[in-house]
Amino acid sequence: MSSNQESVLPSFETDNSQTSKLIRKSKESPFVPVGIAGLIAVVGYGLYKLKHRGNTKMSVHLIHMRVAAQGFVVGAMTCGVLYSMYREYLAKPKE
């Protein structure tokens, strides 16, 4: 083997990794991690309540959990858009 050959294994750049993209995105719009955390919280709560759902059908329980998760994510996205509009138009120093 010659030392001039390229490596068979891919090289990972730290600037393009998933973690760095998530950190960069959370700095640009801070409500993205809030939406992710809310989604995880709703899913965790849904799994906990799944055991104690009583006589409720499984399909009804899953529909309620889906609506709750989507509502939280849509709410976080709305807050993020409002925050970015505030930052762009109201908090921006006048030139």
From TrEMBL:
Transmembrane stretches in the record are: 31-48, 68-86
Extract the ranges annotated as region (Disordered): 1-20
The HIG1 domain extends over 3-95
Mainly localized where?
Answer: mitochondrion
Alphabetic keyword roster: Membrane, Transmembrane, Transmembrane helix
PROSITE patterns for the chain: HIG1
Name the Gene3D superfamilies on file.
6.10.140.1320
Q: Indicate where this protein resides in the cell.
A: Mitochondrion membrane
Q: Name a Pfam family for this protein.
A: HIG_1_N
Q: Which InterPro entries match?
A: Hypoxia_induced_domain (IPR007667), RCF1 (IPR050355)
Query: So which residues are the signal peptide here?
Result: none
Tell me which Gene Ontology terms the entry assigns under biological process.
Answer: cellular response to glucose starvation; cellular response to hypoxia; mitochondrial respirasome assembly; negative regulation of release of cytochrome c from mitochondria
Cellular component per GO? mitochondrial inner membrane; nucleoplasm; protein-containing complex
Q: Does the keyword Transmembrane apply?
A: yes
What's this protein's name?
HIG1 hypoxia inducible domain family member 1A
